[in-house]
Design goal:
This protein is mostly beta strands and about 675 residues long. It has one domain: Maltoporin, Chain A. About 5% of the residues lie in helices and about 55% in strands. The protein has 6 helices and 39 strands. The strands form 6 sheets. It has a 24-stranded antiparallel sheet that branches. A 5-stranded mixed sheet has the order 1-6-7-4-5. The longest helix has 7 residues.
Length: about 675
């Protein structure tokens, strides 16, 4: 099912259709005997159609020219990573994702869920993108705007819901392998096995390569290194029915990712394990109960850009995340879909690093920092269908806490250099959202919504200083929660069967937005800005003519920092790393069964590296391509091309010191069972 088909399904006809239609020709006795195990969570609420939502189906997810999940998400209007580089050539801790230009630093402001489980690193808040195998996913749903409901406290800019592929949607065995023109390789496999009335899925993926030089030719030195990468992930998921209406879903997963950036020895690693268990009930009283645990670790070596020797060894950053949720949809009132529940998430971790003299190579200082954050949320939400009108209202209360925070620096002999013991803090916050969708005509829906949101500062923002040489960024233990308020209006229009257009105009503001603020040359500090405002327009279009389809997305955003007083130098500046315009257009052709030929044009406008707007990243326009052709049975040939015009994509610019994104890259591979 394509994006076009998904958009068609979201129109009013689908909202107003009777859920019994598909069952009219099925006898009651047959329904009673049949137990359908899907492995999915609860069906999306009716209110999904009120807010700016884009859904991606499997045929799009597995047709990425780079083969990586962030490349898939770039096709969604408003999606943005902190930096332009992907998960092969960026520091893992910079892999924050956001929506609607509500950035400011590398922490994620969009809530990313996999089968209901939040994926953000408990300490840093980044998303482990290399641990997400696109071939394991069935659908992706992106909702922009402040969240409410389950885990709503993290959905400041919106929610990205990843859902595993259903067992019946693939064969028993999926496999793929690919090789590019630099000798880099990809290998993945998925094995599905029926277990009685349930099923189990085992998956694994391994990516490795020498990488490319992120440093421009005229800035390279003998110590310059390629962005080498070596990452793997593995997961086991099992789904089984407990009775006619309740199914059990369990998942365990692990990953490891090693990278080298800019200089020999500038190595980073990220690793993690997780386990979750989920009970989904689809009877009269629909419910979703979930519990999970995550462990993560991160290490990083900083190399001097003048002596090219280690200056910092961030040797360990172990962290743990635990949490869960319970959502109930009771059949209390006719015409209403009511959701009530609670969710909880706790994160704790500790930085362990040593500062090293670039001259002698000896340890000069040992540092430890860490703490814990927690959030307990209670929520209630109602969707009320009144003929062609759908109303939504949601209320959420969050008790947040920041505890056990500290930073300690000592000499190698144990003498104290500096120490911060942060007081424990707790707070209550109320968030809400409300919206309406009107079926104006058979082919036109009008919608409007308003909402608020909440995000806690991460342990990384509170307690961990870091260096992107030569710039040092200090932590800030006094950071307070970010709060969002916003509203939007939009429409979904299907003038003819083969064309769907969706447009949303929005106005969002984040109060106490956390950003990296310059306080001296080569010195920054995390701080709560008075506010970041973001106003703009998002548009998507999907059309098909015979065997040709066109899908496009555009996001134009006017974002700036707001503050009062002549001493506030950032007032009116555009937040760091936020482009004004981002657009993507994909033209696809399916000449015969099993064939898929597609080309994607992407453009990202210029953006600033820093808060003072002193260094800029030029606009970049790229062309990617994807082709799959059947060879024999379930075996197919795959050709992929990234950045075919070899555009120079500047991903970092600090005083003229530049990093570049992926150059032209060609892939040749084989697939079985897709």
């Amino acid at each position: 099912m394509t994006i076009r088909a998904r958009l068609l399904a979201s129109l009013p006809l689908a909202l107003l259709a009777s859920p019994l239609t598909a069952q009219e020709d099925v006898g009651e006795e047959e329904l009673a005997e049949e137990i359908i195990v899907t492995g999915r969570g609860l069906d999306p609420a009716l209110s999904t159609g009120i807010y700016a939502t884009t859904s991606l189906e499997r045929d799009v997810i597995v047709a990425s020219p780079s083969g990586r999940i962030e490349d898939v998400l770039r096709g969604v209007a408003g999606f943005q990573q902190f930096r332009r580089s992907d998960s092969r050539s960026s520091n893992p801790s910079a892999q924050g994702v956001t929506l609607r230009a509500l950035g400011g630093n590398a922490t994620s402001r969009a809530l990313v869920l996999l089968d209901g489980v939040p994926l953000a690193d408990p300490f840093f808040g980044y998303i482990p993108l290399s641990a997400i195998a696109p071939e394991m996913l069935g659908t992706i749903r992106v909702t922009r705007g402040g969240g409410s409901g389950p885990f709503g406290a993290g959905a400041l800019a919106g929610t990205i819901e990843l859902e595993s592929v259903e067992a019946g949607a693939t064969g028993a065995l999926l496999g793929s392998t690919a090789l590019n023109d630099r000798g880099e390789t990809e290998l993945s496999g998925v094995l599905t096995q029926s277990l009685g009335r349930g099923f189990a899925v085992a998956s694994g993926r391994w990516d490795r390569g020498q990488g490319f030089f992120t440093t421009p030719t005229d800035q390279r030195v003998p110590a310059s290194a390629r962005a080498a990468f070596d990452s793997w992930n593995a997961a086991l998921r099992a789904v089984a029915p407990l009775n006619d209406t309740v199914e059990l879903q369990a998942r365990v997963a692990t990953f490891r990712d090693a990278r080298t950036l800019r200089f020999n020895g500038a190595d980073s690693t990220s690793a993690g394990e997780e386990a979750s268990i989920r009970f989904v009930g689809r009877g009269d009283w629909v419910f979703d109960a979930l519990a999970y645990v995550q462990t993560r670790d991160f290490s990083n070596i900083v190399i001097s850009s003048t002596r090219f020797t280690p200056t910092l060894d961030q040797r360990r950053t172990p962290s743990t995340g635990i949490g869960g949720k319970f959502e109930l949809r009771p059949p209390l009132l006719e015409g209403h879909e009511i959701r009530i529940g609670a969710d909880y998430r706790r994160a704790d971790g500790e930085l362990q690093e040593e500062a090293i003299s670039a001259v002698t190579g000896r340890i000069t200082e040992r540092r430890r920092a860490g703490g814990a954050t927690a959030n307990l949320g209670l929520f209630v939400e109602d969707d009320w269908q009144i003929g062609p009108v759908l109303l939504n209202g949601g209320l959420r209360a969050d008790r947040t806490s920041i505890t056990d925070g500290f930073y300690r620096a000592a000499t190698p002999t144990g003498s104290l250099v500096g120490e911060v013991i942060a007081p424990d803090r707790t707070d209550w916050a109320v968030s809400w959202r409300a919206g309406v969708r009107v079926n104006a005509t058979r082919r036109l829906d009008l919608r409007a919504a308003a909402y608020t949101g909440l995000r806690l500062p991460t342990l990384n923002e509170l307690y961990r200083p870091f260096v992107v040489f030569p710039v040092v960024t200090e932590a800030n233990a006094d950071l307070v929660n970010e709060r969002l308020k916003g509203h939007e209006i939009g429409f979904d229009w299907q003038p003819v069967d083969a064309l769907v257009v969706s447009v949303t105009a929005f106005d969002n503001e984040v109060e106490n937005a956390i950003a990296n603020v310059t306080i001296a040359p080569n010195l920054r500090r995390r701080a709560n800005l008075p506010a970041i405002t973001s106003r703009g327009v998002e548009a998507t279009v999907a059309a098909s003519v015979g065997k040709v389809s066109i899908e496009g997305a555009l996001s134009w955003t006017d974002a700036d920092v707001r503050g009062e007083g002549a001493s506030f130098e950032l007032d009116g500046n555009r937040p760091a790393q936020t482009p004004k315009l981002a657009a993507t257009l994909t033209l696809a052709w399916t000449p015969a069964a099993g064939w898929w030929v597609a080309g994607t044009l992407r453009h990202v406008s210029a953006q600033f590296e820093d808060d003072r707007e002193t260094d800029s990243l030029p606009a970049a326009t790229t062309i990617d391509a994807f082709l799959t052709a059947p060879l024999s049975g379930k075996l197919s040939l795959v050709l992929r091309g990234e950045n075919l015009t070899d555009e120079a994509i500047v991903t970092r610019n600090q005083g003229g010191s530049i990093d570049l994104g992926v150059p032209r890259t060609m892939w040749l591979g084989l697939r079985y069972g897709f």
